[in-house]
């Protein structure tokens, strides 16, 4: 019966190892989920910044076009004088 007890002892050790590995996996999964959440928040901020930059660029281009058109108008007016 010594072999039976040894087998049972080994089975108990393996079951403990399995429980420990499950706990480690659960902890790592939690860290992964937290990192994923943080990455999604950062991505949202980058997308917001990109949108703001595009809007500001559109305003700059509109102002540049307006300045260019006004400059043309002044040049044409001075030529007629």
Describe what this molecule looks like in 3D.
The protein is mainly alpha-helical. It contains 1 helix and no strands. It starts with a helix and ends with a helix. The model has no long low-confidence stretch (mean pLDDT 90).
Helix content: over 70%
- In the predicted model, the low-confidence regions spanning at least 5 consecutive residues are none
Largest sheet: none
Enumerate how many helices there are, as a single number.
Answer: 1
Task: Tell me the number of strands.
Answer: 0
**Proportion of beta-strand residues:** under 5%
Alpha-carbon Rg, integer: 35 Å
Order of helices and strands: H
Mean pLDDT: 90
How far apart are the termini? 119 Å
Shape: rod-shaped
Structural class: mainly alpha
């Amino acid at each position: 019966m010594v072999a039976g007890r040894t087998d049972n002892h080994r089975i108990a050790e393996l079951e403990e190892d399995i429980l420990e590995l499950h706990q480690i996996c659960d902890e790592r999964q939690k860290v992964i989920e937290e990192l994923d959440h943080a990455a999604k928040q950062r991505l949202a901020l980058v997308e917001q910044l990109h949108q703001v930059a595009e809007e500001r660029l559109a305003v700059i281009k509109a102002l540049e076009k307006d300045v260019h058109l006004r400059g043309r108008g002044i040049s044409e007016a001075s030529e007629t004088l």
